[in-house]
Amino acid sequence: MISPAERDLLRKAADRLLRYPFSFWHYGDSIGFEGLLAASDLLGDPRYESWAHGALRACAARREPFRELDNTAPGHAMCLAYERTGDEAMLAAAGALAVFLAGRRQVEGAFVSFERAPLREPYGGAPLSEEDAELLRDPGAGVFVDCLHFDPPFFAHLGALAGDPALVDLAAGQALAYVELLQDESGLFWHFWLEKTGRRYGHAWGRGQGWALLGLLDTLRYLPEEHDAAPRLRAALERLAAALAATQEPDGSWAAVAGDPASGPEASTAAFAAAGLAGAIAGGLLGDEYREPALAAWRSARSHVDETGLLTGVSAAVWASTEASHYAHVPRGFDVPWGQGALLVAAKRIAGLAAA
Hints:
Blueprint: H1 4-19, H2 29-43, H3 46-61, H4 75-85, H5 88-102, E1 106-107, E2 110-111, H6 130-137, E3 142-144, H7 147-162, H8 165-182, E4 190-194, E5 199-203, H9 206-222, H10 230-247, H11 267-282, H12 291-303, H13 337-355
Antiparallel strand pairs: 1-2, 3-4, 4-5
């Protein structure tokens, strides 16, 4: 049961998302739309669902020609909106988006996120080696962990809705490819992998663990239990959950670089972790030993919400860098979907966990 004061604060948090200038589409939009849908469920207020449906409907009407950044479109949220409304135009738009996304080039079994990876000079100003400076000039194609939250859950969800096992198989194959490229023996994920070097970069970026956790969870939600890939994806989720529990700070938070307290706290990571761990427990994918880490993550995220409903201490768009110190120096203090959306999804799932 949510107290009146908590309900009022979460309403303010959701209202902030309604005012956010979404660009249709950009990295981080997906969790924002999922947060709006969660807010309607949690608060019993149809405004958030209606706004999300209207925005998705408008974009569906002018969806073509597609472009590279449409790989960030909230396809899973489109499927959720269709389930809630029965809007056939939404389902048709999701199908067209899936055709476009399935036609992209693959490397090592994963769709290319960017043909030119969006590298930038590192936050913090660390000098680049000659090799890294050359990559900054001409990075080539890359595969990014964020897209584990975009592609596989969408393909799996749409495949389940449409009764299309080929889409479900595509989801499973993509999720496995991300795991193979970006998850290491620690259980944590790296931020990205470059085709030019065959190497991965950005180890243990905090919010990246959240993108991976929700991506694995939402893919498994729509993947048949008997699917050949299911055991391997469950194992990847379990390894990540164990690594998150091991790197959680005593106050329930995570550092900007998980396991490196010197990198400083970053609040969206706790919101993502609370949402993912609570959702995995509810779905039977994790045991009750993760209940306290999930609740502690929620307490940490909740402690960073100010009186206006803003989740404070959230880092800006990270972009990417081959320089490891970059991830500890990303500026914080932004009002963005990957903060507000993750907070609302976490609030809904934690409320469900507490009621169970």
